From TrEMBL:
<dbReference type="GO" id="GO:0004601">
    <property type="term" value="F:peroxidase activity"/>
</dbReference>
<dbReference type="InterPro" id="IPR048327">
    <property type="entry name" value="Dyp_perox_N"/>
</dbReference>
<keyword id="KW-0575">Peroxidase</keyword>
<keyword id="KW-0560">Oxidoreductase</keyword>
<dbReference type="GO" id="GO:0033212">
    <property type="term" value="P:iron import into cell"/>
</dbReference>
<dbReference type="Pfam" id="PF20628">
    <property type="entry name" value="Dyp_perox_C"/>
</dbReference>
<comment type="similarity">
    <text>Belongs to the DyP-type peroxidase family.</text>
</comment>
<keyword id="KW-0408">Iron</keyword>
<comment type="function">
    <text>Involved in the recovery of exogenous heme iron. Extracts iron from heme while preserving the protoporphyrin ring intact.</text>
</comment>
<keyword id="KW-0479">Metal-binding</keyword>
<dbReference type="GO" id="GO:0020037">
    <property type="term" value="F:heme binding"/>
</dbReference>
<dbReference type="InterPro" id="IPR048328">
    <property type="entry name" value="Dyp_perox_C"/>
</dbReference>
<protein>
    <recommendedName>
        <fullName>Deferrochelatase</fullName>
        <ecNumber>1.11.1.-</ecNumber>
    </recommendedName>
</protein>
<dbReference type="GO" id="GO:0046872">
    <property type="term" value="F:metal ion binding"/>
</dbReference>
<dbReference type="GO" id="GO:0005829">
    <property type="term" value="C:cytosol"/>
</dbReference>
<keyword id="KW-0349">Heme</keyword>
<feature type="domain" description="Dyp-type peroxidase C-terminal">
    <location>
        <begin position="227"/>
        <end position="410"/>
    </location>
</feature>
Amino acid sequence: MARRGGIVSEGLSRRRLFGLGAAGVAAVGAGALATRSLAEQPVAYASATSDAVPFYGAHQAGITTPAQDRLHFVAFDVITKDRGELVELLQEWTAAAARMTQGRDAGTFGAVGGAPEAPPDDTGEALGLPASGLTLTVGFGPSLFDDRFGLADRRPAALADLPAFPGEDLQPQISGGDICVQACAHDPQVAVHAIRNLARIGFGKVSVRYSQLGFGRTSSTSRAQATPRNLMGFKDGTNNLKLEDTSMLRDHLWAAPGDGPAWMDGGAYLVTRKIRMHIETWDRAPLAEQEAIFGRDKGKGAPLTGKDEFDAPDFAAKGPDGQPAIAGDAHVRLAHPDAHGGARLLRRGYNFVDGSDGLGRLDAGLFFIAYQRDPRKQFVPIQRMLSQKDSLNEYIKHVSSGLFACPPGVVDGGDYWGRTLFT
């Protein structure tokens, strides 16, 4: 296998994967467990926006990886009914992902190196571009655990369908999905190229249910990153979990032995929500009202009871009128871990603008992405309270929803996405 800077950059070739078949690759993957201790060493991250992020490790990249600037998220429906074909696809996807995240073409012969009479192994639009910090993260939706592939008894209890929340207006055609892939990169063309090639490889076995482009990350996942702003102009995710918070990641992010089926040990659960913002209405709201809704200063991001962004909110403090300085229905109060028994999320959402709705209003907002150890104990109670009491609800609408179980990382070139589920 080719190596680059000491990091394995290519998995099994497509031909070798198919030659081994599901059973053969499973055996290789099982042997690879002996090397798991190597994969569990501290992960190195890209030092520049053009660099590659290591693909192999105990956890999938793209979760605690410092959030990149661009997103292309896709949900697939599996259209094959053959379990073996699905496993082969995951093997082939893994090999392609290992190559693309290291700045290489999706296939062995690339965009121009194959036989002229055959379709290329790569679509070619990323030729000459660096890796750009590309990460690819896969997850399995509840619908994959029906009776098609013999997985029903392997569905984790934490992968319970999300309940309905007040005020949401979910569109089924952009919700759910059997499998999701999150592509994050610093170059939008690199992210689009990755998803395009996975869809190409999956032709006849999966179909795209929906996809979402995002720009301008709305959360920081490392202390080295400044807190970004959402399209309402406020800093977002100030109290987000960070990759440096190793003990908190253990408690709130990674599925642990005993939490559920062993195939999810070291994985995490992903919730996505497309949240449309009523931009035009928000833009007419007075600054004081905007700040009261969030419970934070719009400039520095400080809580209304503090001076700096990372000051702890004082929810007991009173204003000059004797009322709480941070209102009871302020977003920061209702979303704070203190309101939910300490529950926390690792957020890595993105802004989106999908043109207009035909009435001259921007179709824009937040594509919310949050990883956690158990949505039943984290996202669900937080969102239930927000949906019932948050004054921000006047200006937003949840229009799509997704829930996925993201398995642990790929340990080496003999492993593949979802091996722990299918073997």
